[in-house]
Every structure is written in C-alpha cells, then in structure tokens.
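The material for today's practical consists of a large collection of protein records. An example says more than a description, so a record of this kind follows:
***
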Amino acid sequence: MKIEQIYTGCLAQGAYYIESNGEAAIIDPLREVSPYIKKAAQDNAKIKYIFETHFHADFVSGHVTLSKQTGAPIVYGPLANPAFDAIIAEDNQEFKIGDISIIALHTPGHTMESTTYLLKDENGKDHAIFSGDTLFLGDVGRPDLAQKAGDITKEDLAGFLFDSLRNKIMPLSDDVIVYPAHGAGSACGKNMMKETVDTLGNQKQMNYALRADMTKEEFIAEVTDGLLPPPQYFPLNVKMNKEGYDDIDEVLKRGTKALSPNAFEVLANETGAIVLDVRHQSEFVKGHIPRSIFIGIDGGFAPWVGALIADVEQPILIVADKGRVEETVTRLSRVGFDNTLGYLEGGYEAWEAAEKETDTIESISANEFKNRMEANTIPVFDVRKEGEFLKSHLPTAHFTPLDYLNQHLAEFPNEETFYVHCAGGYRSVIAASILKSRGIHNLVDVAGGFGAIKKSGIPVTDEVCPSTLKK
C-alpha cells in the first residue's frame, strides 16, 4: 500500500494518491492531472476511482479531466448532484482498491455532500481518513459556504458538522491518520495548523472543536464565531466543480498565446482585459504598464487573484518573466480563471523597447519612512490582515486590509501624499497597483513592510479593540 500526499503550498491544498496491488485512487486532484497519471504509470497501476470529498470552493479540481483521460469514475458522497456522470456513494459504501478498501462516511456540515473517506488496510484495520474540509488539523471546515437564503443557515450546518464529527470521526481509533484537504493559509477554515498530517488521537487532544465535553450549542457558537466573508470567487469555483469546465490543455493553449506590444495593447483596449503583472514587486515598482495590476507569482498568487479580481470570466492578459507564462496560466486555472487571452512577448522590456507609455511607484526604505514620519505627520495605511494589525501596528496607521481595499477607497487622500505598507512588501505593492488603476497616484510604498519598519526603531503598539476595526 502506498499513500502519497501531494501538497500545493500556494493553495494550502492536499491531494492524495493511493495505490495497492496495481490499482490506484486519487482524492481531490488538482486541475493539472498529468502528475497523477505519471505516478500510476510508474507504479504500473490503473487509476480505478477518483474520489471527491465535496464541491470545492477555493480551487477547481481536476476530477472531470482526469476521468476523461483515464476512464476512472468520479465518486461523490450522498446528496451530491453533479451535472456529469458520477457515482453517488451511499453512506458506508465500500470501494476496493487492490488489497485495501475505502469506505465513504457521509459527514455533512461544511457542505451537505461532504464525505470523509476511511481507508482500511490489507488486514481490514482502520488506517487513515481523508477528511476533506470536514476536519482540519487544529480546526474544522467553516459552515457558512453552503448555506442558502431561506433554506439553511450556518448554524444549521454547524449542527450537522457537530453530529458528523461526534458520530462518524471521533469514535475511530486514536492511531488513525488524518489527511485533510487543506492546511494553514486556506480560507476554508479559521485556525489551521502548519502541519499537514497528524493522528486522530492528537487532534482529539488539541483541536478545540473535538473537545469531549463540548455541547452542541458551544460547538455552534465557537465554529461560527469570527468567520470573515468568503472570497467572491468561491461560489464560481463551486459552480465549475459541479458543472464541469474546459480541459487544462485548452486553457493553456489560449493563455500562452504570444502577443507583440502593439497586439497586446490593442487586445487590452478591445476586450477590457485586466493586465496582470506577475513579476517580483521590486521590478513592478521600477516600471510597469499603466493601470496594470500586480500580483506576483512568487507570493500568495492564486488566492489573491481570486480575492481581488473575483470574476473568473474576467479576460486577463499577462506580463511575466521569461519561462513563467505557462506556470502563471496553470495557477490561474487552479482557481477558475480560464479566460487568459495571451501574454506580452518579450515581457516588460519589449514594452519599453516599443516606447509605450509606462508608470512607476515611489518606494522608499523603512529608514527613509522613519525620517519622514519624524519630520511631519503623514497619513499611513496598513493593508495587512486583521490578526496582523491587532498583534502590532503603527499607532497612527489606518487599517485598510487588502482583501477589502475597494471598500476603503474614499478614505485615501485626494491630493496629500500617503504611505502604504504590509508585512513584507508584497501586498502593499498589490494595493498600490489597484489604487493607481483607479486613478489614485499620490502614494508611496514602504519597501520591506512592517518587518522593516519595526527594525528601523519606529514605535509600534499592540493595543486595539477589534470592534473598532472597519472592513
């Protein structure tokens, strides 16, 4: 028996390859499916089943493409109703893979079709669970993504989740291994551990949601407390996972079309495409195409694209470093952004060589920022997340989190120069690019972010009442 976790850090997502005696199963595959097919070929195994724990919201799964290419059926748990052919498993239904078996345990709560897959080894012993978004390490799945107006509430879903955990998962042996669908950084939970594998026994000890003496009412209150609004692209990804999508090869063919600077400019004007610049922030501040949006490929790329662009049908044109175009299109497709129209051949250097209009962002060091703060009272805007701001911040900073930047546009000065910072310099440049695309140019980026600001010796505070924060 072989179990391999295939973890994708930028999505904080775990897919799984399971093989036994020439047969294999894939759980929650990513959009690009060739790695799973290659693994099976290397093991001289046939992919027999593709298991989906639920209709994912934060990424587009590769189940449809993988099924087409291998002939393996897609398996969902009870209550799933996909638009394509699939096996809708009954609760406790068994699936044989070589010498092992996988049992579908219906565990509604995160969504109504959510299912945990219990793996039994060659001796019939419970070995591991693939818990999807039902049970994370240190947390459980948020119960507000599948609610429908007038039909079911997040409190209802939290109640179902409580029952699922108590009746289906917690009775299992402490030595059962937990393989979740996500880890720290995912928006599908609140407080996940950085580890990606654990034992159920350890989770029973340290996961707040698995306390033995917890009442259902306490569980509902704690699980629903402090939930931030989900990213706008989540429902669109659910729709794609439920109804189907174009194969990744077709998306790559469209998105990797090389465009000269003139053709790039014409297409941008004709289609209203967003020009997405994925180079490093230090390069973007030195020069970029006017009104282009920066989201660097080497940061938290896909989740920020989803959070800030939101509409997966939005046409996109890419500015990237040489050799990174296919990677960019692939990572966009993972979160459902399939409408990439092409890329700037020769990159930003070709745009400059064509003597096209360019723009820059003023970016200063933390030491220079300190000098300016000491000389004058200057407006400062902190675009980090709420938890970061609460932990420590500049006393005079305005809290304008990047996730909700559009809701804060009226707060930025019209003429006075203001300063923007994040934690390390990545998100502040994203924010600056968005503000400039909306005609707000009187800004300065603080390179190195809050980390560099603290090192410069500027006084900071960690006292703030959460109720005073606006989003």
Q: What stands out?
A: The mean pLDDT is 94. The longest helix spans residues 154-169. The CA atoms of residues 380 and 397 lie 5 Å apart. The chain has 16 helices and 22 strands.
